[in-house]
Amino acid sequence: MTDSRATEDLLRELAPHVLGALVRRYGHFEVAEDAVQEALLAAVTQWPSDCVPDNPKAWLITVASRRVTDQLRAEQARRRREDAVAVRVLPEEYLAPPADAAQEPGRAAPARGAGRRPPAERGAPARGRTGAPTGALGRDGGGRRALPRRRPADDVTGGRRYLERRAARLVDAGDQ
Predict the structure, then answer these.
(1) What is the pLDDT of residues 72-124, one digit of tens each?
(2) Which of 159, 152, 156 is nearest to 167 (CA)?
(3) For 133, left (φ over 0), alpha (ψ -120 to 50), or beta?
(4) Rounded CA Rg of the chain
(5) How many CB atoms within 10 Å of residue 83?
(6) Alpha-carbon distance 81 to 75, whole Å?
(7) Taking 90 as the threshold, does the pLDDT of residue 69 lie above it?
(8) Nearest of 2, 16, 80, 85 to residue 48 by alpha carbon
(9) Residue 64 · residue 84 · CB < 8 Å
(10) What's the start-to-end Cα distance of the chain, in Å?
(11) At what angle do helices 56-86 and 29-50 cross, to 10 degrees?
(12) What is residue 134's DSSP assignment?
């Protein structure tokens, strides 16, 4: 009974340290907190049979770090799958209706080139499939306005203006 009580006390003492280490390393508090809870559960189930490791804090940090890594990878994979589904082009968007099908009222005639392979198969970018070259509309592939390219001279000029304004403020502050 005293052995399990000592283990509980040790885990209570180490849990905040392990949580702090994981938050510092990974920066995700909620994920780190869940991982620490799982590591504590693993310790409670494994330590009575295997005995307490030589460095229990390092053991907990290692187990919790692996759980954080697993959770972050699973989240990243889930996002990647959702993005892949979101950019999928449905057949209705790239296939022309049959020639003998009646035109729906309010539906425009099929676009020129309809019925060809979908844009994703032709190598077009996943977003911004307008049919026109992206530069022709003044927009980039994501539908955002394209900005003119900056030159290194623009950076130098902007930096010089910033320094001049800053120096003027410092001189004004010194006069007061």
Answers:
(1) 999 999 999 988 888 887 777 777 777 787 766 666 555 555 555 555 555 55
(2) 159
(3) beta
(4) 30
(5) 11
(6) 10
(7) yes
(8) 2
(9) no
(10) 74
(11) 130
(12) G
Give the least confident one: 35-44, 82-91, 127-136, 163-172. Answer: 127-136
Q: Is 32 exposed, middle or buried (0-12, 13-18, 19+ CB in 10 A)?
A: buried
Alpha-carbon gap, residue 1 to 143, rounded angstroms: 66
Interior angle at CA 105, CA 103 and CA 107, nearest 5: 70
Q: Look up the pTM and report it.
A: 0.49
Closest C-alpha to 19, from 76, 74, 54, 63: 63
Of 37, 45, 48, nearest in space to 14 by CA: 37
Q: Which residue has the tokens 């060809």?
A: 116
